[in-house]
User: Which sequence fits this backbone?
């Protein structure tokens, strides 16, 4: 009788263990299936330009259009633009480029908000910019900080007004340590390619493109005035821009805009 009881107990225990294993396996498989998979995207490059150098950007488009490039133009001082300049912005938009915001009066967001508060900064530099540009057919979705001046409080507020915002980063550091790659965040950082920046170095920029290609990254660059002969501050030489576009194309990198990143 005692042996019979032991056998029954052992059988019940075995069945229970098997049932628990099956349930655990099913639960584990369900969790594995339900786990979201990170979307892959082709490696590439984003070229961005700040301020109100519309005539120069228009000339750059004429030069680089055969390469199939794309860029994002962050516009400020919109109220001072001529009809011809606004028409050129529309032309750039029609060519597949992004027209974006850089502040109505190019205010230093960090300094202004520290002195007058974030709400006043938004009302003085963001709201009028979006309204004026929307009136002319530019429904802007992204923003770049003037002077790269930002903090987390500003980021939080501006992301209520834009899909994606761009800060800045500096220095010629190893490609793997750079911050100028898209990492799936709504805050991104660009590395300057104006020739007065200390990191201006075309071979170095190419190492970033190589790294992007090898590691499925998207490099983000920014400049200002695109000119044939860069002899002042905040100027991106056209020869450098053309060389980087050609190199990116040779490497099979995709040209993105900032708005493209927001859609990823």
Assistant:
């Amino acid at each position: 009788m005692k042996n019979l009881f032991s056998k029954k107990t052992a059988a019940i225990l075995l069945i229970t263990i098997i049932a628990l294993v099956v349930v655990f396996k099913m639960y584990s498989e369900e969790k594995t299936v339900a786990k979201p998979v990170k979307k892959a995207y082709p490696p590439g490059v984003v070229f961005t330009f700040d301020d109100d150098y519309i005539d120069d950007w228009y000339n750059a488009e004429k030069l680089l259009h055969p390469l199939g490039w794309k860029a994002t133009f962050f516009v400020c001082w919109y109220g001072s633009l001529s009809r011809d300049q606004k028409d050129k912005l529309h032309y750039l938009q029609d060519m597949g480029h992004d027209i974006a915001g850089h502040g109505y009066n190019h205010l230093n967001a960090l300094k202004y908000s520290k002195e007058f508060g974030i709400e006043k900064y938004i009302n003085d530099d963001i709201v009028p910019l979006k309204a004026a540009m929307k009136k002319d057919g530019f429904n802007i979705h992204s923003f770049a900080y003037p002077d790269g001046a930002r903090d987390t409080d500003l980021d939080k507020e501006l992301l209520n007004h834009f899909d994606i915002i761009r800060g800045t980063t500096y220095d010629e550091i190893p490609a793997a340590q750079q911050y100028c790659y898209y990492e799936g965040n709504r805050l991104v950082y660009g590395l300057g390619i104006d020739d007065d920046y200390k990191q201006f170095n075309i071979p170095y920029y190419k190492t970033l493109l190589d790294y992007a290609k090898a590691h499925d990254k998207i490099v983000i660059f920014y400049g200002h005035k695109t000119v044939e002969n860069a002899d002042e501050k905040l100027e991106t030489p056209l020869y450098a821009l053309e060389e980087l576009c050609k190199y990116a194309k040779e490497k099979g990198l995709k040209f993105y805009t900032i708005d493209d990143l927001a859609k990823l």
The longest strand covers residues 44-51. Strands lie at 44-51, 71-75, 98-101, 142-144, 164-169, 187-192, 218-223, 225-227, 235-237, 254-256. Residues 2-34 form the longest helix (33 residues).
